[in-house]
Design a protein that fits this description.
CATH class of the largest domain: Alpha Beta
Radius of gyration: 20 Å
Strand content: 15-25%
Distance between the termini: 31 Å
Strand order of the largest sheet: 14-13-10-11-12-15-16
CATH superfamily of the largest domain: ATP-grasp fold, B domain
Length: 415
């Protein structure tokens, strides 16, 4: 197929970026990728330009690298497409300089920060009438001891990427005050105290998501899904098994929230249903490619293609998705299934039956086979690094800078 329109430079090469590459590459869009650790998307047949970066994918050095890559390789006018959180924040914080070279699909930080930072997101959610789990923002260990916090509870950062990179976890569980203090100390060894929150554990049986394309806060098209399994199963880094099921009431909630956020582009809104009152509670907003977005593509809602079209001036039209398909990331769903069986949440036979109904895979595709082999090799490499070298956590609170500075302590071990 002949190339159609400007090319796309993906920032990141994990399975989320791979889904974008396959969506656009099959339509003849030229594709390049930047990463410091080549992963599955790096090896896709649709990627023709590859740029290896030796350091963390944030900070002024990486910003200058992106500007140089465009000028040295004739990529001026290409669309810059972040596929992971730290690159999303870098582009948002540096829209002025990057937009002189690239076309951007990322909103400026003045808009994006309200979705990216959970403390700010909760302010918006409250104004939109969207409930979220009860949350506290202690400034010290003493404040934690003085708070009336129900248990179990979790400690988590308001922006999770730094802690994910440092210890491979989004949240730290606690069953009592002493456990909460230990989790707080562990979190504040990585991020500043003002960026740490304590949250109740919602006793929900089901987690759901809304996937949408928005224009100025208005949902143009959307679908819903149940995130049936995640890995790890308690506070997972990513979903591993997702089912396309209809939950229209969540689209209405998301519309109120996204309208106040002023979101433009592809986005996922995550909820958990609370057994205590039956109400959905907001967990997160991801204004970038999310793990299961290829399920949306298979269901007729091709968000990367809509994002591309919007970037070149094509107004999105409403799409009615199909329901009933299932998505699985085998690499993490097998250990998630094993954990669920050990915890008595599912029988081995039921787990096997669930896989037999899977119809969309995160990486595996006979038309583009190399990424699956690369996925296994990267996982094996991470396992060796995890067993051979302890993680070093250090304080990295620097979000007030124009571009993110400092070295990354390493990638989380689950994409």
């Amino acid at each position: 197929m002949a190339p159609r329109g400007p090319g796309v430079l993906l920032l990141g090469s994990d399975f989320k970026a791979l889904g974008v590459a396959r969506s656009l590459g099959r339509r003849g869009v030229p594709l390049g990728v930047v990463d410091n650790l080549p992963r599955s998307g790096w090896f896709s047949r649709y990627v023709t330009r590859r740029f290896k970066w030796p350091g963390p994918m944030h900070g002024n050095e990486f910003l200058n690298f992106l500007l140089d890559v465009a000028r040295r390789n004739g990529l001026e006018g290409w669309i810059l497409f972040p596929a992971q959180d730290e690159t999303l924040e870098l582009v948002a914080r540096n829209c002025d300089s990057l937009s002189k070279v690239y076309r951007l699909v990322t909103q400026p930080w003045s808009v994006l920060k309200w979705a990216h930072d959970k403390k700010l997101l909760h302010v918006i959610a409250g104004g939109a009438g969207v409930q979220h789990p009860r949350t506290w923002y202690p400034a010290s260990e003493g404040e934690i001891r003085a708070m009336d916090i129900p248990f179990p509870a979790i400690v988590k950062p308001t922006i999770s990427i730094e802690m994910q990179y440092a210890i491979g976890r989004k949240a730290l569980p606690a069953s009592d005050v002493e456990g909460l203090i230990q989790g707080y100390r562990r979190a504040t060894a990585v991020v500043a105290p003002e960026d740490v929150m304590v949250q109740e554990v919602v006793t929900g049986a089901s987690q759901y998501s809304v996937a949408a394309f928005c224009e100025d806060g208005h949902i143009v098209s959307a679908m819903t899904a149940r995130r049936t399994r995640q890995y790890p199963i308690d506070y997972g880094l990513s979903s591993s098994f997702v089912e396309a099921v209809e939950a229209p009431h969540l689209i209405e909630l998301s519309h109120r929230l996204l309208g106040r956020l002023g979101t433009t582009g592809m986005v996922e809104v995550e909820f958990i249903e609370d057994r205590r009152d039956g109400q959905p509670k907001l967990l997160d907003v991801n204004p970038r490619p999310f793990g299961w977005h290829t399920l949306c593509i298979a269901s007729g809602l091709d968000l990367p293609w809509m994002q591309y079209g919007y970037a070149i001036g094509r107004r999105p039209t409403r799409v009615v998705p199909r329901y009933g398909l299932r998505w699985v990331r085998i690499l993490t769903d097998i250990p998630a299934g094993a954990q669920s069986v050990r915890a008595g949440l599912i029988s081995p036979l039921d787990y096997i039956r669930s896989l037999s109904g899977a119809s969309v895979f995160s990486v595996l595709d006979a038309r583009d086979p190399l990424p699956a082999a690369a996925d296994l090799l990267v996982a094996a490499r991470r396992l060796l690094l995890m067993t051979g070298r302890p993680t070093e956590a250090r304080r990295t609170s620097h979000r007030g800078e124009p571009a993110r500075l400092g070295a990354s302590p390493g990638r989380p071990h689950v994409d």
